[in-house]
Amino acid sequence: PQWARLPSDELVYETQPSELPVSYFPLDNTARCHCGAFFTDQTLPTFKQNFIIFGLRCGYERTIQVSKCISCKHSRRLYGSDLGSIGIFNWNNSFGFTHELLNQYTNVFTTCENPFVAFVTNTCRLYISSNSPVAFCSGETFTRVWFAFTDLQVLASGIKCPICGPYPDVVIADGVSIGYSSNKTMSGLCPPTMVSERNPIISTVSLKTGSKSTLVSLALRKVVQNIISFKYPPQYFNTAEQHKMVPPLTEFLELYLTSSDNKILVPTRELLKQVSH
Q: In angstroms, how far is the first alpha carbon of the chain from the final one?
């Protein structure tokens, strides 16, 4: 969607959606099959079939020109136009979804918690209020279509770690903006707390004794707490002995003490607060 674009994003093609979709979509130079093969042989026989377009408030019954794919030779796979340049996502040459509809769900779920079921229900009610000639699709179909649509988009954010770069080996994340249905997960997917015979056994770790804090030393935790609460001056944590105790924490403290950017100070202070308790 336009509101989510960055100045550095490469635009694949300009989209100029019409107010109402045209009644007939012929084959053009963007036509291809689901297998990836393009429609290049103009001598192949073609035929027309019904094509339902789902918009934001109403559905439309249209016609599309297709041709049987000669590459995969699948009975249900046909050459069909892409239609992306006119703001339509051609799902399977039978159903099409306007970019306006699909981008609307992206807009909704990025601003508030809104599952697919709720969005589909709201859209069905809009179709009823608009006296749509066709009913809206099922929730399962819309979910599959939306994920296929976003899979084609380049969702680069420009965010990167100043040390690890744009693709760090470990990312600490909190929360989730969209839920996945249990029937979409793989059979081998398990929660991280699940114990099995394949779990490694670490004999040097015991949960029964010792401190459970990230920083075992009480004195060091107290020093960090005093620094982030401004009780100690910045140069207090500037000794080789303290640096040797926890090198990773030292880098965080140096970043916290030398930075003047609130975007860095606030999350760094919060992380130091958590590890020092």
A: 43
Q: Is the pTM of this model over 0.70?
A: no
CB 243 within 8 A of CB 191: no
| Pairing mode, strands 47-54 and 24-25 | unpaired
Residue owning tokens 């084959």: 27
Beta strand 59-68 with 78-79: parallel, antiparallel or unpaired?
antiparallel
Rounded Cα gap, residues 109 and 180, in angstroms: 13
Secondary structure of the chain in the HEC alphabet? CHHHCCCCCCCCCCCCCCCCCCCEECCCCCCECCCCCECCCCCCCCEEEEEEEECCCCEEEEEEEEEECCCCCCCCCEEECCCHHHCEEECCCCEEEEHHHHHHHHHHHCCCCCCHHHHHHHHHHHHHHCCCCCCCCCHHHHHHHHHHHHHCCCCCCCCCECCCECCCCCCCCCCCCCCCCHHHCCCCCCCCCCCCCCCCCCCCCCCCCCCCCCCCCHHHHHHHHHHHCCCCCHHHHCCHHHHHHCHHHHHHHHHHHHCCCHHHHHHHHHHHHHHCC
pLDDT in tens, 172-226: 776 655 555 666 666 666 666 778 887 788 777 666 666 667 777 777 777 777 7
Alpha carbon dihedral 34, 37, 41, 44, in 10-degree steps, equals: -30
